[in-house]
Design brief:
With 760 residues, the protein is mainly β.
Length: 760
């Protein structure tokens, strides 16, 4: 297989060289015009340029050309967006420093995930939503007026391609092959079944051997690890019996069976406290260091090498069904969206990647939710436009986590949380055109939010060292002798809070808009899912964010240049954070705590430029500058430490930059050849609010590139691509766990692949 890809690399290099000679020997031609992007950020279809809030959008066509295969790769295209998490199955999104740094399944996220307007209460499986998409919309800043649940940071909405009643049969199929035995298929077929009914079915399957090498000769798995098999299918049925009524039923099923991303242990001691362990490298926590774990194992300095005794696994299953109904009356349109979702995950990882298997974490989770939204929107052409509605959301999470600690003779601490959430809201928003140029918008949402939780937690008695290579799920754990440490039923907290937005928009010209927005939203509190005692199983207070933002959106140079920019300031109070601190229970090592850390002040600016100076050449570039710092600490972590005042918030690089340079030229008989370079820069960032050097990532560049051929009829597309051309190593996340500083490697090393697509 390696010889095949060696030849593949040589072919790609020669092809790229020839393409460069060909491209730059061709003269340029006339100017091009940028494509209009339509979004639904305000719950109605509008041009991206007419929406008075900060929105970034990427079309399905662009997603395919950039070879984006999963949600966490969106950060290369969306300014201000960062992603983290423990692998393909569970991705965490942050916008402008507002997100979550808690790896536990009970943690909510201040940057919400939606598919076709349906919220995901759990992040499990959301990275796998990237298939058969019309576009992805990213709304920045509080969106609590129209979008509802937990959107203090913003939201990411995946918008799928819909069936077309009366349209021609259409669809596509694509096949991908790449290094590390990565193969993928994606396809869709849309068909009109009658004058009133249409259907579309789409699906994808991806397999990857993994780009980590397990060098432990006693390992129970293969040498290659970190791979997965993932498949998903979505079926949609549309019924339009007349010009007024549209009904769409969507059903999505997704399943993943993979190996958990190996972790790396970079040093000992839990910040902000010191357990007395030392690290031989002053740069602990960075790739290339050689720190030791609890049993004295020296970590391999190669980021993509693991010595774990057993390959972890991650299994996930997602089912969602949603019904969308739109009825257009003369004056208003009524919309109803009802959805049901179940999500299950089992995950095992050897958290420090060491041959001793000193630390192992097991997750056994089930999540079920259903939601209903009903709203009325005005249809008038007059100066007034409005939307009013109601929203209901209900879910139940069964979250089980057990830690197996070989260092203490096979001790296992387990906790079972059952957490129910209920969210009810009424909302309304109105816009008024004072003149042809000046529009004002105001909206409010009243939300009733409730959490009910129960816990059963303890430790095995006596410790059981025979469980070294065993998945310790809830059924096994509670079937063994154990000591109860926490047993508390039905703690309950509820809140009633308003969210609001005021926007002003002024059109300087038909192509240039100035806008200002003030918005406020809140995220309900979360239970401390890592608790091992009754007094630790508490729910935090809500967090609040008020954002002030001004910007402009404009098309210039006869529609060939699009420039959108904004600056913002936000006041973020009672931010929810996560930390592990030393505990009094000896062998259990540390206590996981979730609490309101303090208040944050944030400000920054974003710029997106899209320029097509000539038909062949396109430049897209974006810059995001974010400063987000704790200005006070409201929670005492104890033990003489824990003041976060002055710390940057977790996962908040000060500067990120993206660019795509695409050159397209005609070739024989009307086909097109295009060459794209994508440099991406990410500044320094810390992975936790406690702001430690050894749970952080230095600034780095990533360079992606591709060369593609499109047939004259636009049906065939063949593309060679390379990701991480300079073979950069970086970390995606990090945290302290049972006294060790653990980090999760980022994306793959340099990877070359090819994709062939056919559209009809």
């Amino acid at each position: 297989m390696q010889r095949i890809f060696t030849s593949f690399k040589q072919l790609a290099s020669v092809t790229l060289y020839c393409a460069l000679l060909f491209i730059f020997s061709n003269p340029v031609t006339a100017q091009g015009v940028l494509e209009e992007i339509v979004v639904t950020a305000q719950k109605r279809e509008q041009s991206l340029q007419d929406v008075p809030i900060a929105v970034s959008a990427i079309t399905g066509t662009t997603i395919r050309k950039r070879a984006i295969a999963q949600g966490r790769e969106l950060l290369d295209s969306i300014p201000g967006l960062t992603t983290a998490g423990t692998g393909f199955g569970k991705v965490e999104y942050s916008l402008r420093g507002v997100g979550v740094d808690d790896f536990q399944s009970s943690a909510g996220n201040a940057t919400a995930i939606y598919q076709d307007g349906v919220v995901f209460g759990s992040n499990f499986g959301t990275s796998g939503l990237v298939f058969d998409l019309d576009r992805v919309e990213v709304l920045k800043g509080p969106q609590g007026t129209l979008w509802g649940r937990n959107t203090t940071g913003g939201l990411v909405n995946y918008v799928s391609v819909k069936p077309e009643v009366g349209g021609e049969t259409n669809g596509y199929a694509s096949v991908t092959a790449a290094e590390y035995d990565q193969y993928a298929f994606e396809g869709a077929v849309g068909i009109s079944l009658s004058d009133t009914v249409a259907a579309r079915i789409s699906g994808t399957f991806r397999t990857l051997d993994g780009y980590f090498e397990n060098v432990n000769p006693a390992a129970t798995g293969d040498d290659d690890t970190g791979g997965y098999d993932w498949g998903a299918v979505r079926g949609q049925l549309v019924w339009e019996p007349n010009d007024r009524l549209t009904t769409r039923l969507s059903v999505t099923y997704s399943e993943m069976d993979g190996e958990d991303t190996p972790h790396k242990a970079f040093g000992l001691g839990a910040h902000p406290f010191d357990f007395g362990f030392s690290c031989t490298d002053p740069l602990r926590g960075r790739p290339g260091t050689t720190c030791v774990n609890l049993l004295g194992n020296v970590a391999d300095s190669d980021l993509y090498t693991t010595e774990q005794g057993e390959d972890g696994f991650s299994k996930m299953e997602l089912f969602q069904t949603a019904l969308f109904i739109d009825y257009e009356f003369d004056a208003v349109t009524a919309t109803v969206i009802a959805a049901f979702q179940t999500n299950e995950r089992q995950d095992l990882n050897e958290t420090d990647g060491a041959p001793s298997g000193v630390l192992r974490a097991n997750f056994d989770d089930e999540h079920e939710q259903w939601s209903v939204e009903a709203r009325l929107s005005s249809n008038s052409d007059g100066p007034w436009s409005w939307v009013i509605g109601g929203f209901y959301y209900d879910d139940e999470l069964t979250y089980f986590r057990s830690n197996y600690i070989l260092a203490f003779g096979g001790t296992s601490a387990g906790r079972l949380n059952i957490i129910e959430s209920e969210n009810k809201a009424i909302f309304g928003e109105v816009s008024y055109d004072f003149t042809d140029r000046f529009t004002a918008t105001a909206g409010v949402r009243l939300t009733w939010d409730e959490r009910v939780g129960a816990i059963l937690a303890g430790s095995l008695a006596p410790p059981n060292p025979t469980l070294t290579n065993t998945f310790i799920g809830k059924d096994l754990w509670f079937g063994l002798p154990h000591v109860i440490l926490a047993d508390e039923d039905n703690q309950e907290e509820d809140w009633f809070e308003p969210s609001a937005r005021i926007s002003l928009q002024y059109a300087l010209t038909e192509e240039v808009n100035l806008w200002f927005t003030w918005s406020r939203s809140f995220r309900g509190g979360d239970f401390n899912g890592g608790a091992l005692a009754d007094d630790e199983f508490e729910v935090t207070e809500p967090e609040f964010l008020s954002n002030y933002e001004a910007g402009f959106k404009g098309d210039f140079l006869d529609g060939t240049l699009r420039l959108n920019a904004s600056g913002y300031y936000y006041d973020y109070t009672d931010k929810i954070g996560f930390v592990e601190i030393p505990g009094a229970r000896g062998e259990l090592g540390s206590i996981s705590l979730l609490a309101n850390f303090g208040d944050v002040e944030g400000y920054g600016a974003e710029v997106e430029l899209d320029w097509q100076p000539v038909e062949q050449f396109n430049i897209y570039t974006s810059f995001a500058w974010t400063e987000a710092e704790f200005v006070s600490t409201s929670f005492d972590l104890g033990f003489g430490g824990g003041d976060v005042t002055g710390n940057r918030t977790a996962k908040t690089p000060a500067l990120t930059m993206n660019a795509f340079f695409t050159y397209t030229v005609p070739v024989t008989q009307g086909g097109r050849l295009d060459l794209t370079f994508n440099p991406h820069w990410r500044d320094n960032q810390n992975f936790t609010d406690t702001d430690t050097d050894y749970e952080s990532q230095d600034a780095f560049w990533i360079l992606n590139a591709s060369i593609g051929y499109t047939s004259p009829d636009d049906k065939w597309d063949a593309r060679l691509w390379v990701k991480n051309l300079t073979d950069e190593e970086w970390l995606a996340d990090g945290f302290t766990f049972i006294a060790e500083h653990l980090s999760i490697p980022g994306g793959p090393p340099r990877q070359i692949g090819g994709t062939v697509s056919y559209r009809f």
